[in-house]
Write a structure and sequence with these properties.
Length: about 120
C-alpha cells in the first residue's frame, strides 16, 4: 500500500464520513469517491483551503432517483469545494437507485483512474 496515495470510498453515510475525514486530513487523502451520500453539515473554509493545497480530488455518484436532499447537499458541497479550487465531479446515473453499481469494481477503477490524471 502506498500510504502517500490513499483514496476513500464511501456509500450513503460512509460518503459523509469520507468527506469529513478527507477534509480533516487532506495531507493523507488524495481522492474521495462518494456514492449516494450527503455532505457534512459543516465544512469550514480553513479545511477547504488545506484540501485544495493538498490537491484533494472528489467524485460524487448518485442515481437520478436518489434522495433530493442527498443530491442537493452534494451540489452545494461541489460549489463550495470548486470555489476553493478543489477538483469535484458529480455523476448522476439514470439506472442507479440509492445503491451501488452492479459492476462495482470496474466502475470504481474507471473513476479512480480518471481522478489520478
Amino acid at each position: 500500500v502506498d500510504i502517500n496515495d490513499i483514496s476513500l470510498l464511501g456509500y450513503s453515510q460512509g460518503s459523509q464520513m469520507s468527506y469529513e475525514y478527507a477534509l480533516e486530513h487532506p495531507e493523507k487523502i488524495r481522492r474521495v469517491i462518494a456514492f449516494s451520500g450527503f455532505s457534512p453539515a459543516v465544512v469550514n473554509d480553513e479545511n477547504l483551503d488545506r484540501a485544495s493545497k493538498n490537491r484533494l480530488k472528489v467524485m460524487a455518484v448518485s442515481g437520478v432517483s436518489d434522495s433530493p436532499d442527498f443530491i442537493r447537499s452534494t451540489e452545494l458541497l461541489e460549489e463550495k469545494m470548486k470555489q476553493h479550487g478543489i477538483q469535484f465531479g458529480m455523476k448522476l446515473e439514470p439506472d442507479l437507485p440509492h445503491g451501488l453499481p452492479f459492476d462495482m469494481k470496474s466502475y470504481c477503477v474507471e473513476i479512480w483512474n480518471e481522478l489520478r490524471k
